[in-house]
Amino acid sequence: MTSTVAGTPSTRHTTVAPSGTGGQRGDGPADRDRPELRRTTGPYPHPMGDAAERWRERQLGRGIPDHVLRYAPADPWTHDPADFTPPAEPADTPSHRAARAIAERAAAWTCAGASVLDVGCGGGDAVFGAAWPEPSPVARVVGVDRQADMLAVFAAAARARDLPHGTVHGSWPDAAGDAGRHDVVVCHHVLHNVVDLPPFLAALSGAVRTRGGIGGVVVEMLTEHPLAWLDPLWERFHDVVRPPSATHDDAVAVLREQQGVAPEVLTWTRAARLPHDAAWVTRRLCLPADRVEEVAAALVDLPPRRTDAVTLTWSP
Ligand SMILES: C[S@@+](CC[C@H](N)C(=O)[O-])C[C@H]1O[C@@H](n2cnc3c(N)ncnc32)[C@H](O)[C@@H]1O
């Protein structure tokens, strides 16, 4: 059975936009078709180990079978930027606090503000959360995303906050060379889109500028794949049985295996953010809009989506 993993179709990096909008979008091959990603890159050139293989297998197990995808009336993966507009007053979360703490140390050491890179930035909730409240230690923010419309939201939010910013339109880690190095690298809710984790994590660590031993990465993710709660509906509507999801423990194991890093791991409960209404779920399940009522009825039987979040923090 061939399948495509949620979020896998990647966008080749094309344009660096130092400020404002991103560049052109072009379709690149899925990660699984790219043999160069079977090995890690950058400063951690180790072959893929057992933990990385486990992550990869579990992520491939989240795939949508081609016979389902072929008849999907709408793209089941693309995020609506409207769902990612950062709030004027960010939530006070462990991830925001962790990034801010590193930014404060960097700003104090350099006697200037810190620069923060947001990988898979969406509208920039991760980075603007670290820059809030004023007075902020953050002097510059750069967002990387493969969706140009997300970068437009990110840039508008930075302008509204009067924060110098840049955007890089492309797929991480391909886009890493254009993103530069920064005091803090944040990456929220992207890991479960990734099949080959080692090069992704290596590029996060590689993007950290360690000045005076300061600098770090803050990753936020859910404890399991964000769509795992819909697994019973895949079986019900498509007869597709999903294997267990990759977890944050699996991601930590890859980091240890590849970089010898033991991140600080903090588990907490976050507020649900994305819409989970029947129309949204219907699109995610590759079903036509005229089945929304059927999906709504099926959702009643499901346990509510879990909101266990994890913050991973490390210094490369
Ligand atoms: C679930 S959203 C999270 C957005 C934001 N980080 C937040 O927490 O609000 C995931 C974002 O990552 C982007 N993305 C996923 N994989 C990516 C990759 N390999 N490179 C760049 N962007 C990616 C998607 O386009 C999307 O905007």
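^ S-adenosylmethionine complex. Residues 3-314 form a domain with the Rossmann fold fold (CATH 3.40.50.150). Residues 79 and 111 are 38 Å apart (CA to CA).
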